[in-house]
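User: Thanks for the earlier help. One more: XRE family transcriptional regulator. Can you show the sequence and predicted structure together?

Assistant: Of course, both are below.
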Amino acid sequence: MATLRHHLETSGETQAAFAQRINIQQGTVSKLARGVMLPSLKLAQKIERATDGQVPVSSWNAIDTNPNQETSHDHTSQKPASDAA
C-alpha cells in the first residue's frame, strides 16, 4: 500500500499531470501528497482508480491526522457555467 506522495515519486507523474487526469487542482494534489489535506470519500475513490489500486481508500486512514488538517470537499477544476441569456 502506497501513499499518494510515494506513488507520484515512483511513477514519475507530476502533480499537475495527476491533477489533470482526475480533474482536480494541482494545489489539492500537493496538499494531499503532503498530508495537509484528507480527501473526501469520492476523491479517495478517484485516486484509488487512477493509481490502479496502489493508493487505496484505506491508505488515507493510516495518515496521522493533524488538528489543522483540511478535508477535501472534492473541488474539481470545473469551469463555471455560463449565464443563460
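User: Great, one quick takeaway?

Assistant: The radius of gyration is 13 Å.
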